[in-house]
UniProtKB/TrEMBL annotation:
<comment type="subunit">
    <text>Monomer.</text>
</comment>
<feature type="binding site">
    <location>
        <position position="185"/>
    </location>
    <ligand>
        <name>[4Fe-4S] cluster 2</name>
    </ligand>
</feature>
<dbReference type="InterPro" id="IPR006638">
    <property type="entry name" value="Elp3/MiaA/NifB-like_rSAM"/>
</dbReference>
<dbReference type="InterPro" id="IPR006463">
    <property type="entry name" value="MiaB_methiolase"/>
</dbReference>
<keyword id="KW-0408">Iron</keyword>
<feature type="domain" description="TRAM">
    <location>
        <begin position="413"/>
        <end position="476"/>
    </location>
</feature>
<dbReference type="InterPro" id="IPR020612">
    <property type="entry name" value="Methylthiotransferase_CS"/>
</dbReference>
<feature type="binding site">
    <location>
        <position position="33"/>
    </location>
    <ligand>
        <name>[4Fe-4S] cluster 1</name>
    </ligand>
</feature>
<feature type="binding site">
    <location>
        <position position="103"/>
    </location>
    <ligand>
        <name>[4Fe-4S] cluster 1</name>
    </ligand>
</feature>
<dbReference type="InterPro" id="IPR002792">
    <property type="entry name" value="TRAM_dom"/>
</dbReference>
<keyword id="KW-0949">S-adenosyl-L-methionine</keyword>
<dbReference type="InterPro" id="IPR007197">
    <property type="entry name" value="rSAM"/>
</dbReference>
<dbReference type="InterPro" id="IPR058240">
    <property type="entry name" value="rSAM_sf"/>
</dbReference>
<dbReference type="GO" id="GO:0035597">
    <property type="term" value="F:tRNA-2-methylthio-N(6)-dimethylallyladenosine(37) synthase activity"/>
</dbReference>
<keyword id="KW-0004">4Fe-4S</keyword>
<comment type="function">
    <text>Catalyzes the methylthiolation of N6-(dimethylallyl)adenosine (i(6)A), leading to the formation of 2-methylthio-N6-(dimethylallyl)adenosine (ms(2)i(6)A) at position 37 in tRNAs that read codons beginning with uridine.</text>
</comment>
<feature type="domain" description="MTTase N-terminal">
    <location>
        <begin position="24"/>
        <end position="140"/>
    </location>
</feature>
Length: 476
């Protein structure tokens, strides 16, 4: 489990035949968060119209695209290592175009072309509509770049091509960008200003997924609770809205309610919630609808108010605890997971202990834990000192991971001897005779296949055992 939590996610090769008529081949690999994965599906859709199908074979690709992540230095190093593997392929096929998309493209801009001579194309997260033009520019061996950020782009009208999926679970992105300006974070610089997508296009996409047999939708946004749509525009400047616009605005709780009602037999999940923006109204909507999964990913980053202040997190330890108490009161069976950064600038031993004690208070189901990695251009980089030695960061990280493992095991045990509704998502990696799926609280369950079950079925599973990461059960 430790390995899974602290290692950067490896690239995921995304394959799906886009159109039988298409003859050109692209190799598309996505790094980083779910949002990046969702963006890759938009890229596949745009390039499908340009005659491209995806391939999992590097050797037959006309175009290699890496959709990259900048969140920690290690994520960037992984991409650079991957790029160096393409040298030999490019030597064999000089017409091959290699493109870098996403957050690293946005952060490094033209510098990428100088530093990595292999790269022909650099495209930021808001410029994917320009890909067809940019690709034309590379026809005669020139480089092409577009890293303009937009205040409006939501790709609302583009139908994503669902990649590498099981035909059952899908992501639908509803906001882009982030205005929070946490001092450690590169995302506001790589993904730009926050903007919300037209609710009609969101509902349309959800209904299409339902018609195509999908059974679970995860609504995505870097800061999903600040979703706000009003008066026909995604602009964030709500203070300038007219009275009518204010009266008819749609917030996240209302949107969630609309999606849950429009797709009653589909499971709805959402991510990511930031504590300062999450409202009680969302909790009431969760409690009201059986089809909204009882799971909230609620990053905390640190359990210490002074560290939270240095991180510019806009909430205290006490406010976070108040929110957790509200969740327990309004949605009692809700699972909660976290993101925690250890060893942030100036973190004392006492502040670290406060993180451990908060974890014990919340009894998190699960968590993603990271050692602080200084990112160029952020406020922490400019104004604070990355002064916690690597050994201390790593020791504190281990303590946090060990504690989380204990807490996860405790939480998993509470699911034993109970029947849970599980969506069958696929064959278990460990055994062909077993399915895997998730319960509403997002815990993975493995159970023996029966003759009459298939991927996409909802089944009732009696859980009779567990590890800290997986539940084990039987269909009843
Ligand atoms: N160093 C380490 N972890 C980071 N995260 C964001 N920026 C950094 C950084 N500079 C973590 C946060 C965030 C998650 C997506 O990644 O915990 O919630
Ligand atoms: Fe990585 Fe953040 Fe960009 Fe996602 S938004 S790809 S986590 S840097």
């Amino acid at each position: 489990m430790e390995k899974e939590i602290i290692e950067e996610r490896q690239g995921e090769i995304l394959v799906q035949e886009c159109s039988t008529k298409n003859t050109k081949k692209m190799f598309l690999e996505s790094y980083g968060c779910q949002m990046n994965f969702s963006d890759s599906e938009i890229v596949a859709s745009i390039l499908s119209n340009e005659g491209y199908n995806t391939t999992s074979l590097l050797e037959e690709a006309d175009l290699i695209l890496l959709n990259t992540c900048s969140i920690r230095d290690k994520a960037e190093q992984t991409v650079r290592k991957r790029l160096s593997q393409f040298n030999a392929i490019k030597r064999k096929n000089p017409n091959l175009v290699i493109g870098v998309l996403g957050c690293m493209a946005e952060r490094l801009k033209a510098k990428f072309l100088e530093e990595e001579h292999l790269v022909d194309l650099v495209v930021g997260p808001d410029a994917y509509r320009d890909l067809p033009n940019l690709l034309k520019n590379t026809d005669d061996g020139r480089n092409a770049i577009n890293v303009l950020l937009s205040k409006e782009e939501t790709y609302a009208d583009i139908s994503p091509i669902r990649l590498g999926g099981n035909g059952v679970t899908a992501f639908v992105s509803i906001t882009r960008g982030c205005d929070n300006m946490c001092t450690f974070c590169v995302v506001p610089f790589t993904r730009g200003r926050e903007r919300s997508r037209d609710p009609h296009s969101i509902l349309k996409e959800c209904k299409e997924l339902r018609e195509n047999g999908y059974k679970e939708i995860t609504l995505l946004g870097q800061n999903i609770d600040s979703y706000l749509w009003y008066g026909g525009g995604p602009k964030k400047d709500f203070s300038k809205a007219s009275e009518l616009q204010k009266a008819t605005a749609i917030n996240f709780a209302q949107l969630l309610n609309m999606v849950a009602e429009a797709c009653p037999e589909i499971r709805i999940r959402f991510s990511t919630s930031n504590p300062q923006d999450m409202h009680e109204e969302v909790l009431h909507v969760m409690a009201k609808h059986n089809n909204i999964c009882k799971y909230i990913h609620l990053p905390v980053q640190s359990g210490s108010t002074s560290v939270l202040q240095r991180m510019n997190r806009q909430h205290t330890r006490e406010e976070y605890i108040y929110l957790v108490d509200k969740i327990r009161e309004i949605v009692p069976d809700c699972a909660i997971s976290h993101d925690i950064i250890t060893g942030f600038c100036g973190e004392t031993e006492e502040e670290h202990q406060e993180t451990l004690s908060l974890m014990k208070y919340v009894k998190y189901d699960f968590g993603y834990m990271f050692a602080y990695s200084e990112r160029p251009g952020t406020v922490a980089h400019k104004k604070m000192e990355d002064d916690i030695p690597a050994e201390i960061k790593s020791r504190r990280l281990k303590e946090i991971i060990n504690l989380q493992q204990e807490l996860s095991l405790e939480r998993m045990k509470t699911y034993i001897n109970k029947v849970h509704e599980v969506l069958v998502e696929g064959t278990s990696k460990k055994s062909k005779e077993q399915w895997y799926g998730r319960i509403s609280q997002n815990a993975v369950v493995v159970f023996t296949k029966t003759d009459n079950t298939k991927v996409g079925d909802f089944v009732n599973v009696l859980v009779n055992g567990c590890t800290s990461a997986t539940l084990i059960g039987e269909i009843i």
